[in-house]
Amino acid sequence: MTTTPEGIPCWYELGTSDLTAASAFYADVLGWTIADAGMPGMDYRLGTATDGGTVSGMMALEGGDAAPPPYWMIYFTTEDCDARVAAIIEAGGTMLAAPADIPGTGRFAVVADPQGAAFGLLRPLPMDAPMEHPAFDQQAPGHGNWHELMSSDPEAGLAFYAEQFGWTKGDTMDMGEMGTYQIFGGGGQDLGGMMGLGNSPVSAWLPYFGSTGIDQSVERIVAGGGTIHHGPAEVPGGAWIALATDPQGAWFAVVGPR
C-alpha cells in the first residue's frame, strides 16, 4: 500500500452559481470532459483531462442569495484528516466543514488558515499503487499545475503550512510594491508561491491549470464569457500565465507555453 504524504495538492473543487454554464466553460477552456459523479441526492460533476486523469469536482452553491461567491478550492493530502483538523484549530485556523467520509474516495474536511484562506483536506483511501494520472501534474495539460496563496501575512502563512505539511522555502522574487514572492515546496517539488494580498480583498488560494498554449487559452476564456485580469505574462522559467475569472466570477489561472 502507498502511504499518504502531507500537503500535496490532490483535488480541485468548483462551487458555482450556474453548474451547467460552468461545465461548458471549463470543458472548452481546459479540454475537460464533464460527467455526473453519480452521488446520490447531489449533482456533483467530475472534470477529466484528455489523458484520462480526473482533476476536479463541480457543484452548485447552496443558499440562494446567502450563498458565497463562486470559488475554486484546492485540497491537500493528509495522513489523518481528524488529527490534522485538530492541529489546524490549535494553530489558530478554523474548521469550515467537519471531517466526513466520501464513499469510495476517502475522508475530507474544509478549513481555513489563521489568515482566513480556505482550503480542503483529503485523506485518500489506501491504494495499491500511485495514481497514473493524479489531479496535480505539472507535466500534463488540464491538470493542476501551480498554487498561489495571497495572504494578509505571508510569513505567518508559510510558518503555518510548514508546521502542518512540512512545506519548505524555495526561491524568492522581489515584486516591488507587491513585496516578495516566496516559492514553497513539498514532496521534493515546487508546489506554488505565497505573496501579500495584492489586489485580493481577503486571503485566498488560487489554482493554476496547465495549458498547451497560453494565447489559445486566453482566447477561449474570453470567447466563453470569462474575464482576463492579468496576462498573458511571462514568468521565470519561460512559461506564460494568465489570471482570470470564469463567467460566474470564480478566480483561476492558466499556465503554459506561448
UniProtKB/TrEMBL annotation:
Name under which the protein is recorded: VOC family protein
Source species, domain of life: Bacteria
Residues in VOC domain copies: 8-124, 143-257
InterPro entries: Anthracycline_SecMetBiosynth (IPR052164), Glyas_Bleomycin-R_OHBP_Dase (IPR029068), Glyas_Fos-R_dOase_dom (IPR004360), VOC_core (IPR037523)
PANTHER family in the cross-refs: GB|AAF24581.1, GLYOXALASE-RELATED
SUPFAM superfamilies attached to this UniProt entry: Glyoxalase/Bleomycin resistance protein/Dihydroxybiphenyl dioxygenase (SSF54593)
Signal peptide (UniProt feature, chain positions): none
CDD domains documented for this protein: SgaA_N_like
